[in-house]
Specification:
four-stranded antiparallel beta sheet, 10% strand
Length: 145
């Protein structure tokens, strides 16, 4: 392979890598989901009927990163753990559900969301990091031709 062919191939790979990196950050949402009966009971609606989930951002009423969403829900879970006794007496669950069952399900729901959103935050950082390193390596290969 001649030096010119090497440079052309490297440039093509660099353009593809930058394109994939850019696309992954702003890619169309891969999931559209509804709200939750625990997080948004009647009267406490957050202003959206569904969320759009992407690699970096989650969009409902406003766009926010997975890190912001994880921080928010984990803070809410921590607050709930410290005020759990109040929820049993002022439950927003249906009247045919025992308050203890409702609060246990609500706590599980908050914990699960905190863990999943934290995992998605880590995953989005890893993917963007790997793609950035790939772009850097392709750029360095230009100088090795």
């Amino acid at each position: 392979m001649t030096r010119f062919q090497c440079l052309v191939l490297t440039e093509v790979l660099l353009i593809i890598a930058v394109g994939v990196l850019t696309w992954s950050i702003i890619m169309p949402n891969w999931l559209i989901g509804g709200g939750s009966r625990y997080m948004y009971p009647p009267g406490l609606t957050q202003g959206f009927s569904s969320r759009q989930y992407g690699l970096v951002y989650v969009e409902g009423l406003r766009k926010q990163t997975w890190a912001q969403l994880a921080s928010s829900i984990c803070d809410r879970w921590g607050m709930y753990l410290h005020t759990k006794s109040l929820y049993a007496t002022a439950s927003s669950c249906a009247s045919n559900v025992k308050p203890a069952d409702c609060t246990a399900a609500f706590e599980t729901h908050l914990r699960d969301r905190c863990e999943i959103y934290s995992d998605m935050t880590l995953l989005s950082f890893v993917i963007v990091g790997v793609l950035s390193v790939a772009v850097l390596l392709v750029g360095i290969s230009v100088f090795s031709c």
